[in-house]
Amino acid sequence: MTRTEDSVPGPAPGIASARPEATARLMAETGLDEAILRELVHRFYDRVRADDVLGPIFEARIDDWEPHLDRMVAFWSSVALMTGRYHGAPVPAHAPLPVTWAHFERWLALFRQTAEEICPPQGAAHVITQAERIARSLHMAVRNAQAAPGTVPNLS
Ligand code: HEM
Description:
binds protoporphyrin IX containing FE, 7 helices, mainly alpha, 65% helix, single chain
């Protein structure tokens, strides 16, 4: 089949990506871009910080919010748009936290609410699915660490 100009994803406009074609395709499919993800992250953490249960857990561990928010925008850019911008390690950051699945449920409820407000419908569905998947795997890491404190989380 001959591919037309329209069907060939070009470099993603206004976004640096390690995989520009994948990023352009995801942007077209989801309606997401870096500005929307930035808004999502900032509004979401405003809500998290104001939350009676989650707020204190974050405030006890994050002194300077600017770098955390920048890291989270890079994370969501990598997860949702495959830009490869995030180079961190979420598992060791969460494994020692004093949390249960109820905390993840609360985190997800705030995330869903914010995503539905900020993102176009396809984009909200995309980031919510990813967040649910990652929450389940971080919860497994937390449970492993709680069962065997001080050991490396077993993710198999
Ligand atoms: C119970 C729910 C959660 C709590 C209480 C929580 C708490 C935290 C805290 C306190 C940090 C900062 C750690 C530090 O800098 O020492 C952090 C970092 C981070 N969180 Fe969460 N988190 C939760 C769920 C999630 C979920 C579901 C995701 C992904 C969808 C996520 C993604 C991240 C990422 C990417 C980082 C940065 C890790 C790094 O590169 O250092 N978190 N989280």
